[in-house]
Amino acid sequence: EWVDFVVFFNRIIDRFELTKEQTVDFERKLPDKPILMEIDPDKLTQVIDNVISNALKYSPEGGKVTFRIKEQEDQIIVSITDQGVGIPKGNVNKIFGRFYRVDKARSRKLGGTGLGLAIAKEMVEAHDGHIWARSIEGKGTTIFFSLPYEKYEDEGDDWN
Ligand code: ATP
Ligand code: MG
């Protein structure tokens, strides 16, 4: 299905902004022009839902979550950054494994199964993209994912 990825992403963020119970601010650093892409919206909604709910789950009161889309030559890079507890060095890549959870006690309290990011990885890879994380313990986490993107420039000027 063809969508404007910026509109698609904004809608999901809006839904969280309306329903979140935490006092966490959202900041959007998104392009102001459309990014037309063919995606499976249901699958990517699952990906983004999980990443945002993780960001909220691990954010402190008064924290900020930042949403970005960077447009490159042949891909876009979407990122979601929180100011939460972070993930210990050495464990950052494990979070995409099935049932992996950093802190068993903390995770039990916060609920969930530890499958969210493993499913997200499958969904992103089904779009020929990649998903990865950068995190500093005590400072916060950014989850990135890339999606292939063919940029069609407006070539109208060539005829003048
Ligand atoms: P589920 O998504 O199935 O409800 P979950 O959120 O625990 O459960 P994942 O989304 O796969 O599972 O995340 C795996 C683990 O990675 C989490 O349990 C948590 O320890 C760690 N993690 C994920 N996102 C963050 C984040 N933004 N900040 C800190 N830790 C995180
Ligand atoms: Mg999760």
From TrEMBL:
Residues annotated as domain Histidine kinase: 1-151
UniProt subcellular location: Cell membrane
Protein name: histidine kinase
Species this chain originates from: Niallia oryzisoli
Full-protein positions shown: 456 to 615 of 615
